[in-house]
Write a structure and sequence with these properties.
Helix content: 25-40%
Strand order of the largest sheet: 5-4-3-6-7-9-8
Largest sheet: 7 strands, mixed
Number of helices: 10
Shape: elongated
Distance between the termini: 75 Å
Length: 280
């Protein structure tokens, strides 16, 4: 006899007892192996796994026990209303970044043009494209693999009002192109001990680290965005939980106005929004 769903869950929980979220990890991985909704785990606990399902589950649990992210193991991660393909070429989309989508949507009107910088999986750009089909979105990323992944996600969700370009931030654009620029750039300090912990160990450093203070890319984006925004256009940047005042000061020095801080779902400062003046 092969293990039942209930026995598989117990095995996974015991194997991942040192994990921060063993219940969630086991549920995701078991549903992935069984290609089922979590409800099935509750309603048919005595159903047996096949031999191939059990071996796959055991292998995934072992890899998760070594720290490999669940999103890399399953190849997908939910973000906003979309299920996105994920791989190790870029960051795994995180719930806190949905704040950028919410704030952007509040500013967007039909006919506007948006840039998403450092798009990665395309999470922000595709979420906006899905919610605002009458808005034009351009998303950039320096890494070819990330651009390829984002394009695949756009095709997966049949979204045609977004295009993806391989470039560094906004270097290829003319002044006054955009009504809104949004970015979740690298913002971790080079010596941050969190780089040696959790899922970030398996994510590319180029998508995480930005100089000694973690602010190199944000400063670069601020300068480029000021020129590429239309008068009255908006810039929205995600940052670390302790960087809000520094980011606000950077945007102020650049010439932005109407600068405001915004909190994530955990109540931490996570994003700053600012406006290019209507005149000047």
């Amino acid at each position: 006899m092969m293990p039942t769903i209930q026995e598989a869950r117990a095995y996974g929980h015991a194997a991942l007892s040192g994990s921060l979220s063993p219940d969630v990890d086991v549920q995701f991985l078991l549903c992935y192996v069984l290609a089922c909704h979590p409800t099935r785990l509750m309603t048919t606990p005595e159903a047996e796994l096949t031999e191939s399902q059990w071996q796959q589950f055991v292998d995934l649990i072992a890899r998760r026990g070594q720290g490999e992210p669940v999103a890399h193991l399953t190849g997908s991660r939910g973000f906003w209303s979309l299920d996105l393909d994920v791989d190790d070429s870029t960051l795994i989309p995180r719930p806190d970044t949905e704040l950028l989508v919410s704030l952007s949507l509040a500013k967007l009107e039909a006919g506007m043009t948006v840039a998403d910088l450092g798009t990665g999986t395309g999470a922000i750009a595709l979420s906006l494209a899905c919610e605002k089909p009458n808005v034009t979105i351009v998303a950039t990323d320096l890494q070819f693999a990330a651009v390829t992944l984002a394009r695949r996600n756009a095709h997966k969700h049949d979204l045609h009002n977004v295009s993806f370009l391989q470039m560094s931030w906004l270097e290829g654009f003319q002044p006054g192109c955009f009504d809104l620029i949004v970015s979740n750039p690298p913002y971790i300090r080079a010596d941050d001990p969190h780089l040696l912990q959790g899922d970030v160990r398996f994510e590319p450093r180029s998508a995480l680290v930005s100089g000694e203070e973690g602010l190199d890319d944000i400063r670069c984006i601020a300068g480029q965005a000021y020129d590429r925004l239309k008068p009255g256009g908006w810039l929205l940047i995600e940052h670390g939980h302790d960087q809000s005042s520094q980011v606000q000061y950077c945007l102020q020095l650049t010439g932005f106005e109407a600068i405001s801080a915004h909190q994530d779902f955990g109540g931490n400062n996570r994003a700053v929004m600012a406006q290019r003046p209507e005149v000047g």
